[in-house]
Design goal:
The complex is a heterotetramer, with 2 copies of chain A (460 residues) and 2 copies of chain B (545 residues).
Chain A lengths: L16 E2 L6 H9 L5 E5 L3 H15 L6 E2 L4 H6 L2 H15 L3 E5 L2 H6 L3 H10 L8 E5 L8 H16 L7 E7 L5 H14 L3 E3 L25 H6 L3 E7 L1 H15 L3 E4 L5 H15 L6 H20 L3 E5 L2 H13 L3 E7 L5 H10 L7 E4 L5 H10 L4 E4 L3 H8 L3 E3 L17 H23 L10
Chain B lengths: L10 H9 L3 H8 L2 E3 L25 H10 L5 E6 L2 H6 L25 E2 L4 H6 L2 H15 L3 E6 L1 H6 L3 H12 L3 E5 L9 H15 L13 E7 L5 H12 L2 E7 L4 H6 L5 E4 L2 H15 L3 E3 L5 H15 L2 H29 L3 E5 L4 H11 L3 E6 L5 H5 L11 H4 L19 H9 L19 E3 L4 H11 L3 E4 L1 H9 L4 E3 L11 H16 L18 H4 L5
Parallel strand pairs in B: 2-3, 2-4, 4-5, 6-7, 6-8, 8-9, 10-11, 10-13, 11-12, 13-14
Antiparallel strand pairs in B: 1-12
The chains are: A alpha/beta (460), B alpha/beta (545).
């Protein structure tokens, strides 16, 4: 057994986290920053942070992930990181010439109390920021929240740094997609354009972390939302924020600073959440939902009705991020599957409340925990106490899946050992079919593997 | 290009590179870009601060301490005191392999687990010592480990948590568990390197020498600076085994606390990764009188060479004979494979920018493949890794190195026992055995090859443009950047999830993998046919001197 | 073992087929006919044929497959099927009111020599075909060729029955997709429209055999190429025929009857075939290939270059239909995989020649056979003699895959035990990524399953 | 709707259906749509030609012969003589399960294989007998089977290939292999039904009675017309086993040639699927004196009833007692499950259009679930399957039935041995045991229920519109058509790859599956919310009488 020391008995822990279902803020800020065109993310802290974040994102996307670091030394930790950051900005603009730099802090710079606002202002005053270039930033103390918090904070930083309210409203909707894959962002844009909905979506990492192999490396990839478009979002008629954890703060800021009213909706994972997404987008953009969506939806519904016997009553354990887990749980319930164990390292009381509310009727005994020590060790112990038919989560789940022989669908961040997530969306109706194909595939593979010869089925 | 063609002069390249930099940066970087010339004793600036914003390969002290040195040990719980990320990123990402050990499949192995105190803001404000103590207690209660190592992350030092005091208290409280801490905050030093040193110190201080049980067998050695990535250590153990050489302890591939505790009973220390472990070798020599030799088991020839060194050292004819037998048994397969691979590899160009020894060691394998290393450099090496230990006296201690603890080590009153006389060591050294010595990378590299310490992305970009290498060796952050330029990148930290590459079998694996890379069709099909019919230049480029 | 009686030793067979890698003509004709809007296929023979074909197609698509039958009795077999067919036509038009009926023959009606041309003419003369309705037909003797031949023959029947040459050329390209999935047809249309290429594609089964579940059954589904569009194909500037086996005859007929020149290309499966498809379509439609295709292509190339170590040198056994196997084999070679055993029940000398030519450099020892007795029994025996790392073929391959423990990718017709093929294309660049995801997935699952604990990898 | 509400009068529905048809068609179809009325002895037109172009569920004679009757036999090679399709489509598509048999996992099982002569045009022109003979030889050489059955497809009869002659010759040539043919060309008869009869004839002629070895155990029976789809036969065997009843042979679920050969040594034939196997029962009674009884092991109550019939027949108190014990053991689980399922199922509506007995048998299960069967019919049943065998004398032989061979069977001079006296049989019959009898479906159905033989798509469509059933039972061709109307369809040929549904355990499985179907959320979410907020009508519709 790979996790042979994990006991079945759950002992309460007050201090120790084992096999976390989250990581720290800065990586989320780095990912969000990559969703702005021409933006070079910068990590204000020790080299290690930047190196770790770049490595983790690189392994997940198998694509270049560029970012600078302030390379703190003991000296800077004592005297503050201003000198390093000023130097870093000057160097990045001189050597790599990005349109803008997006700085996020770290536990180090936060602990010593570096004031990014002041330092960035100084950089501008000192002429370290060339004409026409921009510097945006956000605070991402690693000891608060999770990688999702960091993503949210950078989204807010993007709004603060780039969104402009001119007073001349533009007939467009801001779409904050939340922490999803480039494939998902691509699909959200397709849905909007298919609908004739005029949107500005950011961040948008498509064509940034899923770039083509052409033999020519572009340090400034084609993708990312342009600074101009983001600026215009201050004049939009409405903001749709996908995911309360990743997108709500930025939407709030757009409201308070630019008077753009907002609505928080779920990431469109699965049937019901996509129904709400499509309706909300149509309403916000004041367009009708075209008939093509009746067909798209109908194809998902068709697969569900055709295959329900393989899903009905199957128990599922899942771990990941709240904004995904909530609609995913709802989708499982629409499939008559039974969400049985759910953990997320990301804190936020709303999470367990929402999950319990969703599960109240069909899965009242669901085990759910989030925040500190809501980790994969606990999830594994729960599974040992109540086995499941399916495990859904990031690549770290493979250790539990192999030990317990549970069909496993890779979903969330990070996925380090399979490809596909960058290219095939799991959002929208078609994304729902993909999720179904994955879930059915692994469960049916087990049926085929374990079937007695007399029960081996040709048709399923 | 044939193996002895002269390399082109990269001076213009160096100029172009520096031209882009602000003056101060250019001045600093120029000292770290050296055009190799065997006739000159050139100094290369290294182990100095990375220039902020330049886009470096480097990581932090914590990574070098927890990730590199302690990571591979199976039966210690490595508890990271800090926010969650530091522990999360070091979770199973280094491919240190471990076998179940004598206890079999149920033997202790905590390497698949990730432990953290997951510091929250109130811990930053009010201090995290209490939470740390609690976490140690909980880890002990659940897993009953022999040892718990506590690793400090950036905030810990700043808020003044005393991990050593907490560890001491918990060690006493728990009684049968060796708890000790590491002040390896990420901001210490200038790279992973400082973390190696800190890890060496604490292992030496808290573990080495705790068990005086003498080994039964003959020819007892420790292998230092081998981390069993991709199973390298397994392959080396296989060879030692065949030769009748007994490894008391490997630092720290596939290691256990028990082995560390007994390691001072060995009669010879072999140093693989000089950068990360030389401190341990020196301290053990001073305290216990164990001599050390630099070896390199990367490359079939150097593996043979390394084995022969051991034979020489032990001055045992039977052992020497056995070693020759083993080499004779292993080489035919190696030669057969290299022959096949050379059909594709001879004359191809390689570049290596990685680690603190690998960029040197792996040149051996490329040499065996008839490939030219046109440029190389370390991520966190020191001058002695480039120029050889002869320069040690001349290396000035700067602010960053100064604050990394230097253990005061003296000969152990009872246990100091010089395994070899100074005369013997002198003679061996004269035979070129690198006793207590390492000659570094530069002497092994061709003239006009470009040596670059702590390479930046910009420099990588320009070097590739200039050399159009056939294989670029670096790490995961560089992997897809370089490949997007049409150049296959071979990861030398993770081996691209392959390996082992050490020893004889490892050499065969490496030859095959390079052969595979060089014969991969897709590199010839990068361009959309409607854009151009000619095949992609990068791969078929032969260097024109 | 499920196929425990299959011996390793290959004994030559002159008469016996075991576990065929093909089926008979009429089902292909039925599938092709479904690709015309408002068309009701009709099987002129015994009831069993129609029932079997509808069942097989229904299991593959999990969607309604409608068709009529002449319900031959012993009487009709002696006196001929004319009476039954006339009655059938009258009944179908009266009861189900299709725009047109597409008749295909069977081994029975062919053996007794029913003359469809004469019978259909009589039906028209007798007023059995209502005003504005059409009847098209083709001969599909089950004892010649295979299901692919039947598909090809109905394509020809569609051209003969519907294509009109008015003499006023239309600036459009005819695209004959070959026997591919509705998802593939959808993708070919997307590629063409993305390119700005004006095409008429038929048959087109999208929105016919992958219809949405809306609670309302439409006997006349939205999809299928309209009779009007097909008629206009006689005035197109060029025909691109995907697949020599499925599409060339129809293209030839368009040439000889309507003077539309044609080019036969491979179905765009994998990198090289898609490159040729895109170029050929751009040339034919006289448009430039937009840059978006550089990105699409580059993403496929990127996945290949990122994952090549898991593909390089892996041996593959495949079975199916020539038009798919040829580009698939070429794709495997582009991936540096080794096509090792290939069988297709569909005859045609060109097949082995083309495969051997493709494999000449990289897989000179490939075992390849097609036509009579090129069956899955032989394939299995070949595999026992030279094991492979991957098996690709229709659902019947699962028996071999389980017996020999070979990673298995379902591809081709029929797929009876998994979903996805109706919705996710395997053609085009993105289709190539899907194929890669599938192949890598099953091979990596085996790596994960078989790895010693010390060699179990987090990152792959 | 409660179980005893009166059903609505479907006359208008019938009118509407017929209104769409051409006059001749309407006239013909009207005789096959019967509004049930227990007070009248109504005749239903069935086993007549399907109207061309009407879109029928029916298959062909070959399917009934090869697919249904011979398909489930493990150790015979079923060689299809014809173009490839006929054999391909019958390949593993009927879910007849088989266990490895006494020989264990290496025992003979050819059911996973598909054998064909793959006739080509030259075989059509010049005849296929030579190829057939060669194919038989090759099958024998590779597999050494005990028996080879040769099945004729449409062209065979027309081109005059004599499969019987070829089989006879090859049987002689091979010596130890029983080779025999079937003239089951697809165009014979009007449906699968003719194929059943042909299969019965040839099994009786070539196999039954070949081995006179008497069974050792008591209470020896044959189970006729049970094909072990989804493991039904396994469950029934489990129950017989528990009761101490010995099954000599099942026709033909999980059967072997050896069992067929000995089947005439049983003392009672139990007939499940009357339509497909009654010929065999009659012929065995005439030739060997084995009485037969109709049973139905679909439904827990009818299973109990069936077992009790056996007890009655053997007049053995011990057996009867054992049967009661078994029933008492099995029923609690059944009742628990049905109780749970009825919470959802009571008052729901079912329709069944399938097979030649299933449409009748499965009404038992729905009855146990408190569901009303509002309409039903067979795909290939005859009048006796609807109205009961009492009508047999009045059924007129038409052109299509005439050409299906009727074996002339007489009592076997040596082996005829009446197992029960006429008096005994008469008494049992009076007790309602259906000795040599079957009462048919109509007597078991409610008044005003609509009986439809050989239903067409148009009729299906109208019936659903009228009744809005909660579950529709049919086959794969209907599955997605009906479901697209928002009505879940339960396949009763393949059981949707579930089952077993026979016996006690099977009843439990069926209850669960219906419970699942009725509780599946998606049926309430078919409509896009932006089109309508109200939930889909189809599922929540309660029938309003």
């Amino acid at each position: 057994m790979l996790l042979r020391h994990t006991p079945k008995e759950v002992a309460e822990r007050k201090a120790l986290t084992i096999n976390p279902a989250k990581t720290c803020q800065p990586i989320g800020a780095m990912y969000a920053a990559l969703g702005v065109h021409g933006c070079l993310p910068h990590s204000h802290g020790s080299q290690g942070c930047c190196s770790y974040h770049r490595s983790a994102l690189t392994r997940h996307y198998k694509d270049p992930i560029m970012a600078g670091t302030s390379s703190f030394t003991e000296g800077s930790s004592v005297f503050g990181g201003q000198a390093n950051l000023l130097q870093a900005l000057a160097n990045m603009f001189t050597i790599y010439d990005p349109d803008l730099v997006a700085i996020h802090s770290t536990c180090l710079s936060e602990t010593i109390g570096d004031d990014l606002t002041q330092i960035v202002q100084k950089a501008i005053d000192d002429g370290k920021v060339p004409e026409g270039k921009k510097v945006i930033y956000c605070n991402t103390p690693s000891y608060i929240g999770s990688h999702i918090t960091g993503f949210s904070n950078m989204c807010t930083g993007i709004v603060r740094g780039l969104a402009k309210h001119t007073g001349n409203a533009i007939d467009q909707v801001n779409l904050l997609p939340g922490w999803v894959e480039p494939s998902d962002m691509r699909e959200m844009k397709r849905i909007a354009s298919e609908m004739g909905a005029n949107i500005v979506m950011y961040p948008d990492t498509s064509d940034v972390v899923d770039t083509p192999q052409t033999g020519e490396y572009k340090m400034d990839p084609d993708g990312g939302t342009s600074v101009k478009d983001i600026a215009s979002s201050g004049d939009s008629i409405k903001t749709l924020a996908c995911g309360a954890w990743a997108s709500e703060d930025a939407a709030k800021l757009l409201d308070s600073r630019c008077k753009v009213p907002y609505e928080v909706i779920d990431i469109p994972v699965g049937l019901s959440a996509t129904d709400r997404f499509v309706t909300a987008l149509a309403d916000a953009a004041k367009v009708d939902v075209p008939d093509s969506f009746i067909s798209e939806r109908g194809r998902l519904v068709d697969v569900i009705s055709d295959m329900s016997q393989y899903l009905h009553g199957k128990k599922v354990a899942l771990f990941g991020d709240p904004d995904q887990l909530i609609p995913l749980t709802e989708f499982l319930l629409d499939l008559d599957m039974i969400p049985t164990h759910i953990v997320s390292g990301t804190p936020g009381k709303k999470f367990t409340a929402r999950i319990k509310e969703l599960c109240a009727e069909k899965a009242p005994n669901v085990n759910v925990k989030n925040g500190e020590r809501a980790d994969m060790f606990l999830l594994h112990q729960w599974i040992k106490n109540e086995p499941v038919d399916l495990l859904i989560g990031n690549t770290y789940g493979k250790y539990i899946a192999r030990d317990e022989d549970i069909p496993f669908v890779r979903y969330g961040f990070p996925i380090l050992d399979r490809i596909g997530h960058s290219y095939f969306p799991t959002v929208g109706y078609t994304g729902g079919i993909r999720l179904l194909e994955k879930m059915l595939g692994v469960m049916m593979d087990k049926i085929d593997r374990d079937a007695e010869e007399s029960k081996f089925e040709l048709v399923m | 290009m044939s193996e002895n063609t002269k390399l082109p002069d990269p001076s213009t390249l160096k100029k172009e590179i520096l031209a882009k930099y602000p003056a101060k940066v250019a001045r600093k970087r120029s000292k770290s870009l050296i055009i190799n010339d065997q006739k000159l004793d050139q100094e290369i600036q290294s182990n100095v601060r990375t220039i902020p914003g330049i886009i470096t390969q480097r990581g932090c002290t914590y990574a070098g301490c927890k990730g590199v040195v302690l990571g591979p040990t199976r039966d210690i719980i490595n508890l990271v005191h800090g926010p969650i990320g530091c522990s999360f990123y070091a979770w199973l990402t280094r491919r240190n392999q471990t076998d179940p050990g004598p206890e079999g499949p149920d033997g202790e192995n905590f390497m698949t687990y990730c432990f953290s105190t997951d510091m929250q803001d109130d811990n930053i404000v009010f201090g995290g010592e209490k939470k740390l103590a609690e976490a140690i207690q909980e880890a002990y209660d659940i897993f009953k480990p022999k040892a718990i190592g506590v690793f400090s992350t950036c905030p810990v030092g700043l808020i003044g948590d005393d991990v050593h005091a907490v560890s001491r208290q918990m060690k006493e409280k728990l009684g049968d568990c060796n708890v000790f801490g590491f002040s390896c905050e990420g901001y210490k030093g200038v790279s992973q390197s400082a973390g190696h040193h800190i890890a060496n110190n604490q292992l030496f201080r808290h573990v080495v020498g705790n068990d005086d049980t003498k080994p039964e067998s003959k020819f007892n050695i420790n292998l230092l600076g081998e981390y069993n990535i991709g199973g390298d250590g397994f392959e080396i153990d296989r060879i030692f085994n065949k030769c009748g050489i007994n490894v008391v302890c490997t630092f720290s591939g596939n290691s256990t606390m028990g082995a560390f505790e007994k390691s001072h009973t060995a009669d010879l220390n072999l140093v693989m990764c000089h950068r990360s472990i030389n401190y341990m070798a020196e301290m053990m020599e001073t305290k216990y009188g164990i001599p050390w030799m630099k070896v390199n088991f990367i490359g079939a020839d150097s593996t043979a060479k390394g084995l022969r060194k051991i034979g020489e050292y032990f001055e045992d004819d039977e052992l020497k004979a056995r070693i020759e037998e083993v080499i004779a048994e292993e080489m035919p397969a190696v030669e057969a494979k290299v022959e096949a691979a050379r059909k594709r590899s001879v004359g191809k160009l390689a570049m290596l920018f990685v680690g603190g020894s690998r960029a040197h060691h792996y040149q051996e394998l490329f040499k065996e493949l008839g490939m030219e290393t046109v440029s190389a450099g370390y991520e966190f090496g020191h001058r002695d890794d480039y120029e050889g230990r002869k320069v040690l006296p001349t290396i000035k201690v700067d602010a960053d190195s100064r604050n990394i603890e230097e253990l005061k080590v003296i000969a152990d009153p009872e246990r100091f026992n010089p395994r070899a006389s100074d005369i013997k060591l002198k003679t061996l050294q004269e035979k070129g055995l690198e006793v207590s010595d390492y000659r570094g990378m530069m002497p092994d590299m061709a003239d006009n090859s470009l040596i670059v310490d702590d390479i930046s992305h910009w420099e990588t970009d320009k070097l590739i443009e200039f050399y159009k290498p056939d294989v670029f060796c670096a790490g995961i952050k560089e992997k897809y950047v370089v490949q997007k330029m049409g150049i296959p990148l071979k990861q030398l930290h993770s081996y691209d999830y392959g390996g082992p590459y050490a020893g004889f079998q490892g050499a065969i694996n490496f030859y095959s993998d390079i052969e595979m890379i060089l014969s991969t069709t897709i590199w010839k099909k990068l361009k959309a046919p409607w854009l151009t019919k000619e095949t992609d230049p990068c791969i078929c480029a032969e260097f024109v001197a």
